[in-house]
Design goal:
This protein has 536 residues and is of the alpha+beta class. 37% of the residues lie in helices and 23% in strands. It has helices spanning 3-6, 46-61, 73-97, 145-151, 157-160, 200-203, 208-217, 221-234, 275-281, 298-305, 322-327, 356-406, 450-458, 465-496; strands spanning 9-19, 29-33, 37-44, 105-106, 108-114, 117-123, 127-132, 135-138, 168-169, 173-174, 183-188, 194-198, 241-251, 265-268, 285-287, 318-319, 342-343, 349-350, 410-415, 418-429, 432-444, 460-462, 529-530. The strands form 5 sheets. Strands 2, 3, 4, 5, 6, 10, 11, 14, 15 and 16 form a 10-stranded mixed β-sheet that branches. It has a 5-stranded antiparallel β-sheet with strand order 1-13-12-7-8. A 4-stranded antiparallel β-sheet has the order 21-20-19-22. A hairpin with a 5-residue loop joins strand 17 and strand 18 (349-350). Helix 2 (46-61) packs antiparallel against helix 3 (73-97).
Amino acid sequence: MPNSVASQTLFLYSTTVSDVGTVRSNNQDSAFAGEHLIAICDGMGGHAGGDTASTIAIRSLAHIEHDDVNGDVSTVARMMETSVMAAHDAIVGKAKRERKLAGMGTTMTAVALVAGYWVLAHIGDSRAYLLRDGRLTRMTQDHSYVQHLIDTGRISPAEARNHPQRNVVMRVLGDFDIDPHPDIAIRAAHPTDRWMLCSDGLCGVLEDSTIEQTLTAYSDQEECAQQLVSMALKAGSTDNVTAVIADATLALDADAFDLPHQTPLVAGAASASLEPIADILNEPVATAPMLRDANASPAQRAAALIQSQPASQPSPRVAQPSAVREENGERANPDTGEIPVIQKRDGHVTDDPNDPDVAKAIHHERQTQRKETRKRGRRNRLIAILIVIAALALATGGAFGAYRWSQTKYFIGNADGVVAVYQGVNTNVFGLALSHEVKRTNIDIDSLPQAWRDQLQDGITFNSYDEAIQHVQVIRQEKSNFNDNSNTSKSSGNAGNGTSDSSDSSGSNGTDGDSSAGSSQTDGGTTAGTDGGDAQ
């Protein structure tokens, strides 16, 4: 690293702008813009799941903004990886506790400035771009299915933009059986470096040349972010759109009293609850600026037309840490678990169990809980009896109806070692099989990749016979491609007296249904989930 960089102190100015877009009903992106950390997370997994996953990831990373590690770059790199893994564990744990959130996940791209170095952590298909000396460099590699197709030479980057599976990601944080370790990179920081982090709602529709021109043309960070988000929406983006802009600033006198400072900004889903992040940082945090009316999305402009009064731009909200909220009387009474909070006649609030009023409230609360438990028990027993009677009455008709329904389905499975098409569903009731073979192919199961064999063992279901036959042809074609790739790899390895790296072990074995990595069903690619809410 040049001495001029090592001896100078760099600071980070950053901002972020996020918009829900023209199609989706809620914003599942989350972003953080601070003095030492910037981050973007693109949630997936349904209306509530994407919000929750991206918010968890931002909260898990936020502590890096203020943690003092004495400028140890390697320590921060390990800290970022640990924080990403912790976010993954938290998302999985919450999904297990709340089954409605099953299948949620998020991408994550974050950059920290530490002692003259950039530390980059990345997983998923959100992106990080670095503008240095007027030249834009893409600093992340998409963990997506189309990127795998590009890397293996099957499609071109231009074809990837309109590929039907362009939103399928192969590595994310979340409720999937995949490797959640992020890519970590360290790079020397230079004065005037400009970073742009974005969700695929932006980079999926704007060319890199357009991004470079905009980053160069607008020196003001907020104006630059506003322009990028607005252009993505005008270009037809159907996803949430988020941009984070951050500039490295040189402080000539690091001991000066008036050093660069900004309040950390939070955008997207995570901005709905700022207080936990303020508590993590122990300093105020604010919501990021909204997309301005002049650059509003078509959906926002259409909504404004039907309003009698022009909608005013909401003011940024600032959340103080808990100590300040308590002093200002803004913090609600703390949740003390089973101990109720009692307000005395003199106005004093207490939760001391030794106080007679608190003890009396505890006793009353426990009595009420016991009564409610007994009521629920009697009610549940009555409901159970009624359910049993209803189930017995409907059992015969239900069984017949279920069998009739099962015969409208088809699946592809294993028949004596070859691929076969079955009518019905791949199960049995009391020993009675609900399926029968209707067509046997000559595709040998053992000649297929392991992921395909696992899928066929469980059965790949379809709504019609024609769909099943079409998928058989897909399997036949993918088998041919797999064998061709294997032969090519072996030939290259023998010719070079080395090993071939032309296939991508992360996604070369295609599957038709949900793979063991918790993937969404695709015709020829192992997927971990679909960003922007498309994960299965």
